[in-house]
Predict the structure.
Amino acid sequence: MDTKDFDVVAKRTDLHQIPELGFNEHKTSDYVAAKLKEMGLEPIRGIGGTGVVAYIDGTEPGPTVMLRADMDALPFVIDGKDACIHACGHDSHTAMVLATAAKLIGHVKKGRVKLFFQPAEETLFGALKSYDDGVDYAFGAHVRPIQDIPDGTVCAAVRHTSSTFCIVELKGKVAHGSRPHLGASVVEAAVLATNAVNSIWVNPNKAWSAKVTSIDCASTATNIIPDKGKMILDIRAQDNETMNELLEKLKTAITNACACVNVTCEITFPGGVIPAAVYDEDLVDQVRKTIGEVLGEDKVAKDCGGGGEDFHYFKQKKPELHAAYIGVGTGVTPGLHDPRMTMNPESLRNGVKVLVRLILNVVG
């Protein structure tokens, strides 16, 4: 097999033309499966819905190392029309794993490498629906914007935060505007709850935020006290312990604020709570050293953070898992999740070089 046929830039160009939303990555998974077969591998389809898995086996006993790429794109409305665009780089991640796989074939001596092309990272459910505890190491990668690390560099750890959103359903009592004492206004409850959220204190040495991003309490007429409403909150925390504390305080603050005006509430987290990154720092140090060895010390970027990633569910489900997640500087501009996103695909070659060495350090 000529690895030139699996050039990462060419594969990213192909994948960029077929963006698909989470759990609907049919063309993408077809493409991935076809390329894996060209490598002589046997792809397994339907993992977590549309995911694809393949294995590269060594000849000696050893650990199982998972190399994971997400595949889904993002939805946008442009000029009044629905659009689907790879604005988070998942096409690049899939391309990097395909190119890495091609370079690993014939070089895995012990254990096995699990190539995992995961669906639906953006839905927050892709990793959970395809979870497998049969791995010992897990590696992932994400392209980074210019605000994080310079183009052409690689960082040893992307320190994602824990994130979630909650929906607060408010239930009051309708009344005429001239007799508000006979009702229970969800508008008043939403105002009090917002103020209560903004009054919460958590350790100031930790990064965290809780923001009310939507309030809908509209009644059918201007003189009616509304009895139904909804609030939405975006919630983020530096680590999982801070997130747990923040969520308990939020639930107490919102519930009590609503009770002050005789409104009840139901608080739900339909997207679950994405865990913060938890890494083995010894492994991160090894990753940092490997980047320097492969690319040169001047290409080792400082760790970056921000955003969330369902990759970290793997570690949450299996705490003894050795996990690492590198950031690949590709000059993404103006930023991730922007429909105008552009990047330097040539820098993906750095990601492939580092991933190949990281995996062979374990199974080579």
